[in-house]
Amino acid sequence: MDDLALMRQAVDQARAGLDEGGVPIGAVLVGGDGTVLGAGRNRRVQQGSVIRHGETDCLENAGRQPATVYRETTLYTTLSPCTMCAGTILLYKIPRVVVGENRTFEASEDWLRSHGVKVDVLDLAECVDLMDTFIARYPEIWNEDIGEVEGR
Amino acid sequence: MDDLALMRQAVDQARAGLDEGGVPIGAVLVGGDGTVLGAGRNRRVQQGSVIRHGETDCLENAGRQPATVYRETTLYTTLSPCTMCAGTILLYKIPRVVVGENRTFEASEDWLRSHGVKVDVLDLAECVDLMDTFIARYPEIWNEDIGEVEGR
Predict the structure, then answer these.
(1) Among the listed residues A70, A59, A50, A54, the one whose alpha carbon sits nearest the alpha carbon of residue A144
(2) Min CA distance, A137 vs chain B (Å)?
(3) Active-site residue list of A
(4) Mapping DSSP to helix (H, G, I), strand (E, B) and coil, where does residue B96 land?
(5) Interchain contact, A44 vs B64, CB within 8 Å
(6) Could you tell me if A48 lies within 8 Å of chain B, comparing CB atoms?
C-alpha cells in the first residue's frame, strides 16, 4: 500500500477517537514487508491515560518487538509527534515517520531529522479538520494533552 | 522528605520489579508541596508493555494532572531516562529530575538540561547493582528495553 492508503488507517483511528469523545490522533506501525504491526489512537479521555498518545498507543498495541523489527518500520501518525512520541521513535530507532499534518502542532521534526529519521509530511486537510473540530469543543483537554496551560 | 528518602521509594519500586522478573527501574513523581503523586516501575515483562518504563508507568499511575501541577513536580528515577521518558518529561514540563545512577545507561541528560530541566545524579551503588543483577540474568530483555540489537 502507498503512504496515503496507510495514512487512511491512521485517520480512521483518529476519527474513531473523535467519536469516543477523545483526542482525534491516530497512528499505524508498518513493518518492512508492508505488514501492519499495530494501530492505535490517543486514549487520554477514554482510558484516563497520560502516556497513550496516538503513536505510543499504536506501539503498545503492536506488542513487544525485537529491535531488528522496529528498524524496518514506518510509523504513520495523523499529527506531528510531541517530544514523548518522538523520543519513543528514537528509542526504538524507527527510521521513518509519515505525518498527516503539522499545522496544529509541531515540536519534534527537526530533532527527529537530526537523528537521521526520515519525516514526511502529507499536509492533509482532513487531519487538520479533525483537530480543529476537537479543539473547538474541548480546548482544555487539548491543552492538557500537550502540557500547556493556555490555548494554542 | 529529602532526595535520598524519595529515591528510596523509587528503589523500592525497582526492587519489586526485579522480584517480578521485570526490568528493575522505578520512579516516583513528587508535587510541589512534597506530596507523592504517583509511583511506578518498568512493566515490559509484567504487562508485555513497550511504553511503560519506570518513569512513564509512574506518570500513568499519577493520572491526569493539570499542566500547572506538573510544572511544580520532581521526578525521581533509579536510572537515567531514555529518550522516550525524557521526551515525556519535556512534554509535561517537569522542571527537575533526580537520577539514581547513569553508569548503566545515559541517553538524554544533555538534552534535558538544554531545555532547562535540572538533572541531579545521586550515583547510588544500589541502583547500579540492581541493573547489573538483571542484565546478567536477562541481557536480551535489557537490549529490547533500550531498542538495542546487541549488548551494552
Answers:
(1) A50
(2) 18
(3) 55
(4) strand
(5) yes
(6) yes
Q: Name the residue among B150, B151, B110, B142 with its Cα closest to residue B42.
A: B142
Q: Which pTM was predicted? A: 0.97
The reply to whether residue B67 touches residue A93, judged by beta carbons under 8 angstroms, is no
Residues of A in contact with B151 (CB under 8 A): none
Q: Distance from B150 to chain A by nearest Cα, in Å?
A: 9
CB B146 within 8 A of CB B82: yes
CB contact B87 to A (< 8 Å): yes
* Integer Cα distance of B20 and A104 in angstroms: 42
Interface test with B, best of A43, A51, A58 (most B CBs within 10 A): A51
Q: How far apart are CA B129 and CA A3, in angstroms?
A: 46
- β-pairing, B118-121 vs B96-101, is parallel
Q: What are the pLDDT tens digits along chain A (152 aa)?
A: 799 999 999 999 999 999 999 999 999 999 999 999 999 999 999 999 999 999 999 999 999 999 999 999 999 999 999 999 999 999 999 999 999 999 999 999 999 999 999 999 999 999 999 999 999 999 999 999 999 997 44
Q: What is the ipTM of this complex?
A: 0.97
SS3 A152: coil
C-alpha cell at A63: 506488542
